[in-house]
Amino acid sequence: MRRFQHFAAIDWSGARGLRQRGIALAVASGTAAPELVRPGHIWSRAEILAWLEEVAASGADMLIGFDFSAAFAFEDRGAYFPEWADSPADLPALWALVETLAAGDAHYEIASFLAHPEARRHFRHGRGGVGDLFEAGAGRLRVVERHQRATKQAASVSNFNLVGAAQVGKASLSGMRLLHRLRGRLPLWPLEPAPPKGPLLVEIYTSLAARAAGIGGGRSKIRDGAALDAALAALGSPPAGFAGPVSDHASDALLTAAWLRAIAGDDAPWSPVPLTEGLARTEGWTFGII
Predict the structure, then answer these.
(1) What does the domain layout of the chain look like in residue ranges?
(2) pTM of the model as a whole
């Protein structure tokens, strides 16, 4: 597997509004401690996009993880949105559909997509109720999500669910609008193979980094600088050096950047057994799930 010089992690948010306290960006370079990009700054999604575009233009040798899903379930029903004539055939077409329907929404929000009469049938909404095609129970899961549950590597939720603190649907949809804009400029694994040089995007779960650092269960969030440094040490990283409180979004980004650096040189994350060419085109995969 090729080597990277820099490792970035983006803790993402699909909340409404221009700026999001839930967004954090950290980079680990060489063997140095991971650092926040613009510490204390309240990011907008547009600023994250601009940062990614700068990385793409620079050709930096960087592995970049984003904490949202690049796709919805497809394999189980042969479609992202069964019974919808315009249901896309692959990842780029999915991102294009989301962008087309949400193009008028400011700040990369996705309310217009979810208000579409065909789209809303597939989601569990808040006060808007449950779509008639939302799968009973937890909702539809991608192959990677079913696999990680079965092997107890992680406990994901369906991104067709838009309700509750653990929901990831809105963040994923807003992220798809960015992926649409980055198409052709920043490759995304496994849809595209890792290039011999330059940047590469991967989907991540920050909880995987926490588990690798020995943090699990109800302790998956770090809000203290000393605890963060202990977790970084477990991943072979120098300390970040925060004294006192640290936001869980910042600690997620810092720890995950160090974790990406720790595992990116291994073969296993790049060749999970269940991953096929078809899944790479339609559902993608979460880096680190093997």
Answers:
(1) 6-69+182-270, 91-174
(2) 0.96
